[in-house]
Design brief:
Elements lengths: L2 H13 L6 H15 L10 E7 L2 E8 L5 E7 L9 H11 L3 E5 L3 E5 L11 E6 L5 H12 L1 H6 L1 H11 L2 H20 L2 H15 L5 H26 L25 E3 L2 E3 L4 H15 L3 H6 L10 E2 L10 H4 L3 E5 L2 E4 L4 H15 L1 H5 L1 E2 L4
Parallel strand pairs: 3-4
Antiparallel strand pairs: 1-2, 2-3, 4-5, 5-6, 7-8, 7-12, 9-11, 10-11
Helix pairs in contact: 1-2, 1-4, 4-6, 10-13
């Protein structure tokens, strides 16, 4: 198997939520990747697990020469790598290890601990295996992590060159508009919360998240109309009619139209949130490890859609925990403070984890 094939295999496993623990990430993702990148993973003088650093341990030390770490790797459960870079940097500082990698299996962050700036500013590159093309993922892993490149010093040289390359500033600048458009399009629940709370600050009334979601959709439509108008101004020969901005009213939906189909049987629900809750219950009955596999997937930017501890659903927002969480089955809590658009995304993610057969046998659209 090549590293490209291994990446494809990992991507499929991530989509199905197969990596439910740090051990699963290590054994199912990291070590096979290192093997395909040329590392002698069974030589514990070169790939050292639980490397000791002044009484503490880093998950893996990649060594050249033997027993002399060149790279530290810290492994976390999928979706739980946030904030772990501080610990990793402390390990690297103690021994002067030039490169450090933090991964949860899906996201790989490559750092140069010896450079200046905050922890995040010393990150050379962040690779998301589900967001990047396989060819890009293969290229980056080989560039920074192949055994031959680490041993020759080419990996460190490439990382330093990439870190110092001012072209990344231009890349960031060019991607800012795309990032803003993606935020509007993806409608992360945190963005909807911020919008709703700001409206409440201004007028005293707080809109529901569906209204905020529809408002963001209108902003995207207005932006598209504006871009078309700009194009027609620059190309007047092709202009056929004057630009008129989208002014469609915010839509509403009747409360009695939330039926869904699961395995050929129709179920009734009074709201999008009830559709989501019932569907999670049905999927957990079909597969007793479904909830574990779903929880192992990467969720929102900061939130967990599903957790054993309901306080994990809304980090930093204890005000939302009691009112906007539901126990789908004993010991598992599901967050409900989402717009219909967000809920549809969560449903699609759940069906992806459930697998193609159940996905094909389910029809649930809350939009």
């Amino acid at each position: 198997m090549t590293i490209g094939n291994q990446i494809e295999k990992v991507r499929q496993g991530l989509r199905e939520g197969r990596f439910t623990s740090e051990a699963a990430v290590s054994q199912g993702i990291l070590l096979p990747a290192l093997y395909e990148l040329g590392w002698p993973v069974f030589n514990t003088s070169i790939v050292i697990p639980e490397f000791s650093v002044e009484g503490r341990r880093v998950d893996y030390a990649l060594c050249h020469p033997e027993n002399h770490p060149s790279v530290f790797i810290e492994v976390k459960k999928v979706g739980l790598s946030e904030g772990a870079d501080r610990q990793l940097f402390e390990y690297a500082f103690h021994l002067g290890v030039p490169m450090a990698i933090l991964t949860d299996g899906q996201e790989w962050s490559f750092y140069l601990p010896g450079e200046q700036g905050r922890y995040d500013e010393r990150r050379v590159y962040k690779l998301d295996l589900l967001e990047r093309e396989v060819s890009e993922a293969k290229s980056r892993l080989d560039r920074y992590l192949s055994y031959s490149n680490v041993c020759s010093g080419a990996a460190l040289k490439a990382a330093r060159s990439d870190y110092q390359n001012v072209a990344r500033v231009r890349i960031v600048e060019s991607n800012l508009p795309k990032a803003w458009e993606a935020l509007l399009k993806d409608q992360d629940s945190l963005l909807l919360d911020l919008l709703a709370e700001k409206v409440e600050d201004l007028c005293g009334y707080k809109p529901d998240l569906d209204m905020c979601s529809q408002f963001l959709e209108m902003q995207i439509q207005n932006s598209k109309h504006h871009d078309k108008y700009e194009h027609e101004i620059k190309n007047p020969i092709k202009q056929t009619k004057p630009f008129t901005p989208a002014t469609a009213p915010i839509r509403t939906r009747t409360v009695d139209n939330f039926n869904f189909v699961f395995k050929g049987k129709e179920f009734h629900a009074r709201s999008a949130r009830e559709v989501m809750t019932k569907l999670f219950q049905l999927l957990s009955q079909e597969d007793n490890v479904f909830l574990d596999r779903f929880a192992s997937r990467k969720h929102g930017k900061k939130r967990r859609y599903l957790a054993r501890d309901k306080r994990e659903l809304y980090p930093g927002r204890p005000d939302l925990v009691e009112q906007h969480s539901v126990e789908v089955v004993a010991g598992w809590w599901l967050g409900t403070n989402y717009s219909r658009r967000n809920i549809q995304d969560i449903i699609e993610l759940a069906l992806e984890v459930a697998g193609p057969q159940l996905r094909k046998a389910t029809k649930a659209n809350v939009l």
